[in-house]
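re: that chain from earlier
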Amino acid sequence: METYEFEGKTAEEAIEKASRELNIPVEELDVHIIEPGSAGIFGLVGSKKTKVRVNVSREEEVNEACVTDEGDVDNVEVCDENEAETESDETDSETVAESYSDNYLESSKEILEKLLSLIPVEATVSVGQAKGKINLNVEGDASGVLIGRKGKTLDAIEYIVNRLVNNTSDKKIKVVVDSENYRQRHIDSLNELALKLGEKVKQQKKALSTPPLNPHDRRIVHLALKKDDRLDTKSRGEGLLKKVVVILKK
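^ sequence. v structure.
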């Protein structure tokens, strides 16, 4: 376990800095606020920055021997199949979904609406639940701003909402924040990448890997190719961000 400290004008700014410098998605950070900070007098005198501590688990380093592939699949690497022998990510189906009462749904919706009013953006929030998760969908002209580059702004908003919701709850709640169906489009993109990799591996008879992915995205790739009898998938790398290597079954 390694520990890092980051500062920012607000907790959100410090957490975003940690995510950027550690290259770890906001929602996967183990964050503890050690100094809450203050705005001072009129925001000018006596202000103090917020300081957060981030714990990161590091796994043993895995040697890599890959060269960039210049094929038609973007951000892919060609690897020696013998180098791809690392553990697979868990691909078990999710546990029995829990159903949340209307109070939990409305509370989550109100927290997100309050957060959006502070940004501020004009948007409407709808709420629902599925597969043991509370789903909040944001619609409005500023949806693109809320999503951000590669969904990082949306991930940050989702992280904050989850922290606030769980701070006032007696049970663990998972809240998913989406806008313009970005989450599903991201899943579709990963599935498409996985299928392209699989076809290319079968054609070239060489192992290929994805770019480094977080655990949630790796699971999507594993599941996309799980039913292909000719292919196998392995996670490869260190830390939370790993590549998924696609190989031919022996």
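The first strand starts at residue 2 and ends at 8.
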